[in-house]
Amino acid sequence: MIEPKLISYLFMAVAGALSLIATYLAVIEKDLVKAVIYSAIQSTAYTILFYLLMAPDIALVYIPVAVGLYPAVVFFLIKKTERFEESG
Amino acid sequence: MRFLKVRNMDINGFLFVFMLSTIMLNLVISLYGVFARPSLIKKIIALTILSDSGNVLAIAVGFRDWPSGWSPSTPPVLNVTSPKASDVVSFARVAVDPLPQALVLTAVVIGLAVMLFLVFLTLQIYRLYGTTDVRKVAKLKG
């Protein structure tokens, strides 16, 4: 019999691993639009973490800010400036 | 049965520590992004990831249900309309610490304001210098 607590910690570990992969891809990606999308995936993993760490109010604030507003503003900035980061 | 419970507890502890270490690795990777990537937009993305990782660590400090086994925890929401003293006592026994959550709620909003300021700073740099690459901006004269 699996305890419910074990499932909760398992989801925490999976969300942490997902956020690690998404952060790595967001930092090394040259196409800034893809980097913003990876950043939104990382924010979704953090929302799961906030919910499992017993902070549902933070999760409610964090979803529209980090998945909606941040990518929208950065997309606006990319549209006004440059899309690709030059390698150096 | 007792052995199984202790073993489960160890698995829980391993998973929790694994989650904390991934968040700390996120801090390291996003610091690399802030310092070493040339594009200003990439720096903004890495800075938001950095502040959010700090927020998750702050929430984890207030989380009372660490696998070493303190007490079962619930969100800090008192769900009785007219609480008696016993309700408050039992609430304080099971709820997580609400102070880091209040701080993080403030930090999310302030981080949004700082990010908007940096976005318009970057836009103005692009309008003046025609690039968002910090190496090119550093080479400009005058």
From TrEMBL, chain A:
<dbReference type="Pfam" id="PF13244">
    <property type="entry name" value="MbhD"/>
</dbReference>
<feature type="domain" description="MrpA C-terminal/MbhD">
    <location>
        <begin position="18"/>
        <end position="83"/>
    </location>
</feature>
<feature type="transmembrane region" description="Helical">
    <location>
        <begin position="35"/>
        <end position="53"/>
    </location>
</feature>
<protein>
    <submittedName>
        <fullName>Sodium:proton antiporter</fullName>
    </submittedName>
</protein>
<feature type="transmembrane region" description="Helical">
    <location>
        <begin position="59"/>
        <end position="78"/>
    </location>
</feature>
<dbReference type="InterPro" id="IPR025383">
    <property type="entry name" value="MrpA_C/MbhD"/>
</dbReference>
<keyword id="KW-0472">Membrane</keyword>
<keyword id="KW-1133">Transmembrane helix</keyword>
<keyword id="KW-1003">Cell membrane</keyword>
<keyword id="KW-0812">Transmembrane</keyword>
<feature type="transmembrane region" description="Helical">
    <location>
        <begin position="6"/>
        <end position="28"/>
    </location>
</feature>
<dbReference type="GO" id="GO:0005886">
    <property type="term" value="C:plasma membrane"/>
</dbReference>
